Amino acid sequence: MSDVAQRPLKIGVVCYPTFGGSGVVATELGKGMAQRGHEIHLFSYAPPARLDVFDERVHLHEVEVSSYPLFKYPPYDLALASRLAEVAEDAELDLVHAHYAIPHTIAALLVKDIIAPRPFPVVTTLHGTDITVVGQDPSYARVTRHALRNSDAVTSVSAYLQAQTEKVFGLERPMHVIPNFVDTQRFRPGRDRNIRSCFSRGVERVVMHVSNFRPVKRAHLVIEAFADIAAALPATLVMIGDGPDRATCEARAATLGLKSRVRFLGAQTDVEHLLPNADLFLLPSEYESFGLAALEAMACGVVPVVTRAGGLPEVVRDGVDGLLIDDDQMESMGSVAAALLPDEERLATMGAAAREAATDRFGREGVVERYEAVYRSVLP
Fold first, then answer.
1. Among 17, 31, 314, 317, who pairs with 44 as Cys (CB 3.0-4.6 Å)?
2. CATH of region 3-181+363-378
């Protein structure tokens, strides 16, 4: 067996530090690789939200952007490339894994030119909006296509996203579909009596939603659905996260007379302690390339009720471990949830199936192994 197939690797990981799926997956993947003995160097403009465990094999490199009067907009991509090139040479990185084509892959490809002729493979993972939004913007389309064509390997988090990428950019190169994953030891069933009592007051059902409150998440539809649930049975809605649509959701809850029954918790770093205390998880997104929030709920044994959109049908099996609502039937989400909540036997059966699916199909170890195989395939 060759040296490259056995030795620990030195891997650069470039990601956003946000609570969104790409930042979470990139950080968790880095931590998983470190547990397998690899040396990980994370690059971002701030500490990633999930980088909460000390490991001597995980190194964080914060990218600082200098501000000069000449620059109307700080050139983050150039600052990232400069920092990445410095560490690539000093730490002798074997490769870099860029999460999001723009600007991360472009910066990595620039580094590849800077340190040539030394090999520096670039692996790109597509998470969704880098293709469906940014990549289709005429201002970035050609640059995105260049990033995908010149990466040494490209992965997408769902078959749906792979198909969209091929359709939008006409790519003829192979892509790897590697789904997102969940740490099933961190996200697991187990209610906390104190937390549960804060939400349910002992007798109410608890419904949860977790997102970044961007328009694509359609968080306002969670409020509308909950109005139907609250009219049918005692229940509390817990909204976790923050973003541009939070104020709209708060106002709508007040208008519907639900202010005392809806809790807005803001962004939370310990979602794994909150999710197990829910009875149902609502995610009415207009589009999801995968649906990591739904998967984390499933790992906690919580039944997701989600839109039949994007990659969500690859995660949630309708009627088995969750429910899928067609986009043109979104007004029925509340009544469907209200019918399921009192059915304790069905709720328990589907919750157990959700946990099993998260463990068997989307456990971290199996997915990390697939990424490692991709890494080793691009090494010289």
1. 17
2. 3.40.50.2000
